[in-house]
Input
Amino acid sequence: MFRFISKVWARFKEYFVLVILILFSLIILSQNQNQNVQKLRAIAFGSFASVTSLLTDLFSVTNLKRENEELRRTNAKLMMQISKLRSYGIVNSELKSLLELKDTSSLPFIPSTVVSRSLSMTQNTITLNAGSNDNVLPGMPVINDQGLIGIIHSVSDDYSIARTINNVDFKLTVMDERSRVNGILKWTGEELVIINIPFTFDVEIGDRIVSSEISSIVPIPIPVGIVSEFKAGESGVFSYIKVKPFVDLTPIENVFILAQVRSKQIDDLELNFYRRNK
Amino acid sequence: MKWYYISPFIVFFVVLLVQISIIPLLSISGIIPDLILITLVYYSISRNQLYGTVLGASYGLLIDLITGNLLGSSMLAKTIAGFAAGYFSGETKKDINTSTYNFSFIVLMCAMINDVVFSFFSAFDIQTNMVTLLFEQALIPSLYTAVVSVLFIFSPFRRRKI
Output
């Protein structure tokens, strides 16, 4: 019997090992939300990111001049906008006090640098050099001066991984800034689209898309992109809305994590996967 | 003997460092070559199929852990790719298959397998067009990887026993 087994093993061992490893992979695929797996992942990417950050620092020195010029230009544009917004702000605060609305304009930002990135067509992620020691939590939005980049997914002590808008697991409630129509933004692996909006709803090419106030992940309007294509979907009931994102993910280096503090009462009421797993 | 098992992992970490920090600068419309796969194919051909399969699983698991991919997706894809590359190993074939353009064709085939499996498990849903999936997420990135693997054939590193 033993001889028979060893004979079969010797002849087919490659296939046995292949089947065992495939089964093991499938088991791991089903354990992605497991807390222990998340902890193991945090240790793994945290350790590797500390090495990668050294290399990134080396490369970023060469880009400093170009980035400085870009920042100066952005700064000048922002200064012009601020002076315009300041006058609106005064009127706004007066109107808000008349209507007794809560002020949501002051938001805490955590500055961070991209340490490494995984430019997969479907699983695009970035590793940032800010972690739980900087009060970063899963679910916090990652932005830059152009708009939304992604959402924090995993956090270690000093580093965090964010799923970018070009990740198939990234889904966000967004709205058309002009018509206030809400829909779900997702990455198909090829393009950024908004789903679940009936074809008869008011959406036009060129409309600005921002994160929706009803989103349980990003409840403040952050610019996402503009509508570049609008047509009837295959069923004819829902529309096919293609969005061109404001942010080009390839050259991003410096980002901000929006350390927004949500109302606990709202969190308890809503189905928020990121906060539910805490 | 220990070096036989340790060296692929030392090479892996060096290649991964390049893959996630330098290679994104070479991206064309978000498509980048997969240097880890080229390394895996090389080891799988120059050693044997069993070694390639286990190494593929180890590489895939480490990539999933480090990059934040869906855990298990790269592991599954690279296990099968390593197994497929192992068919081209053997005492008589390994030199020809790693030092000629055969290597690029093997990389192309394995990259196709890797990308199809990875895309299927990480991105496939009912609305996905299979032809587009195969073309944009498998064929084009695989071609890029195969083209880059040509450099490896002429690389001085390959001539040494890694």
The CA atoms of residues 199 and 239 of chain A lie 4 Å apart.
